[in-house]
Amino acid sequence: MPQADSTKSLSRRDFLRYAAATGVALSVAGIPARVVDAAFVGELPPTREFDVIVIGTGMAGLAAAVQAGEQGARVAILEKQLKPLFGGNSRLAGGIFAAPEARTAEAKAQFIEDFLVKGDYRTDADLIETLADHILDDIEWLKSHGVEFLEPSPMAPYRVLGYTAAPASYQGMPKLLDTMLKAAENLGAETFFQTKAQELLVDASGNVVGVRAKTSKGLVDFRAKATVIATGGFAGNGQMLEQWVGPDADESMVRGIKWATGDGHIMAANVGAQLIQMGGVDTLHIAAVHPKNTASANPFQVVPYALGINRLGRRYVDESLGYVAHGKAAMEQPGLEVALVFDQAVADMPEGQAVISNFDRLGIEIIKANTLDELAAKINVPADALKETVTSFNAAVQNGQALAADPPKAAHAVRIEKPPFYALYPLGPGITLTFGGIRINLRRQALDADGKPIGGLYAAGECVGGYFLGDYVGGGSLTRCLVDGRIAGRNAARA
Ligand SMILES: Cc1cc2nc3c(=O)[nH]c(=O)nc-3n(C[C@H](O)[C@H](O)[C@H](O)COP(=O)(O)OP(=O)(O)OC[C@H]3O[C@@H](n4cnc5c(N)ncnc54)[C@H](O)[C@@H]3O)c2cc1C
């Protein structure tokens, strides 16, 4: 859990300003020098030959491997972890995939606009359009391999449908990944666990011709005409966070796996790939989560309807912007500690029910009280301030908005008036994923600094940059992993 003293929160604010001001400059730092073959004094490592190499067994890697296998390619899948730990952050994920609400031009346009607005129109519209074009077919493709989803449901405040891997949010991804790993193996893919890709192999023309990997028996060269990097993000790499995002970023809670260390970013940069949107806090996905279970205790569904309350008993953000805007605002609150407050009416909504049942499943207490005085005492905020915040907010609510509230709320505003009152507390900011990464084209080829494709090199999933910046559409990352993975796998197999 983040520290509670005020010096800490001051230094965090300084960090935010510093990161925002210096992000671009920081993005060039931190790439270690290329490892060169000159280090070898004996024979070169043994070689294995394939058509396609996929690095990583998360959603992006397995989508690429299965797709390439379906096209008849001989595929090698490299995974640095032990088999029981395969699947990366995809295994821990809530399992929600964002998709257009229907197969209509209007629904696709809404999906694209939501993504672009959240990225402040600084992300790649062409890539995002491919998500809208492909995701519904790609979900059907997963189903054709035996993956099960719940009935899709609306995902306010985003104008998308959320497809959740069955049986429930935060419970479905291990099954989905097991199913897709088996599908890849049934198509003939060979999996190599405890095999860490270390360096891309490049021929005299500068094309990538494979990967040098470290195994328990020493180095092995995996050679192929096409390599797909699907190594995930770098939220687990304190050094990269510090160098690229900002000097204190490595002190944030990390919601995902510790071994998301940006290996793919580094390997790609070492062969000349361009890394984009790597600098500043805009390049992080932050959610305010409960410290007892930073991965799964993310009450995202209820954020638009609740009131975010800081230690002073005050609101600090328009909650209707969604859980990532809320998480980022939480980073700037005293002690980095906030609560989400709502009443029985919100608790009775499907969104409230989803959060309550998830916290119950995780064994995390939800604070309840019959009066705001009692609630204030339980969440350590001044009672007068909390009552004044709730009263003035309620007075401002009109037709689902609270525009006169401080700060104003543009949508999903409901009066907090029906006891018992609830609080999710304490919540603190945690890094979910990193947004910056390898620049790609629509074929998912990695691009060099001149914008030209690097022969033989593809990238898919969280290691790719260009999709998100600043804010985020819930379910967006698994969607791009699946779409990227399939397109990269298809083009890699054709190579
Ligand atoms: C708690 C949590 C909940 C989330 N919930 C959602 C959600 O509901 N919806 C959503 O859209 N997004 C969600 N996200 C984000 C999403 O899960 C990730 O962005 C996505 O799963 C990344 O998938 P990936 O395939 O790119 O990488 P990963 O799933 O992280 O897989 C990368 C794999 O590559 C392996 N690897 C890395 N380096 C090497 C190497 N050098 N050699 C060999 N193997 C290597 C890793 O061990 C790992 O297995 C969540 C994230 C977290 C942490």
What attributes does this structure have?
6-stranded mixed sheet; Flavocytochrome C3, Chain A, domain 1; 21% strand; single chain; 495 residues; alpha/beta; 2 domains; binds flavin-adenine dinucleotide; FAD/NAD(P)-binding domain
Q: Report the mean per-residue pLDDT as an integer.
A: 92
Number of strands: 21
Q: How far is the N terminus from the C terminus?
A: 47 Å
Runs with pLDDT <50, length 5+? 1-36
Proper CATH architecture of the largest domain = 3-Layer(bba) Sandwich
Describe this entry's structure for a reader.
The protein is α/β, with parallel strands linked by helices and 495 residues long. The chain has two domains: 246 residues, FAD/NAD(P)-binding domain, CATH 3.50.50.60; 147 residues, Alpha-Beta Complex (Flavocytochrome C3, Chain A, domain 1), CATH 3.90.700. Helices cover 34% and strands 21% of the residues. The chain contains 14 helices and 21 strands. Strands 7-3-2-11-21-20 form a six-stranded mixed beta sheet, covered by helices on one side. Helix 2 packs parallel to helix 14. The protein starts with 5 loop residues before the first helix and ends with a helix. The N terminus is likely disordered. The chain binds flavin-adenine dinucleotide (FAD). Flavin-adenine dinucleotide binds next to helix 2, helix 3, strand 8, strand 18 and helix 14.
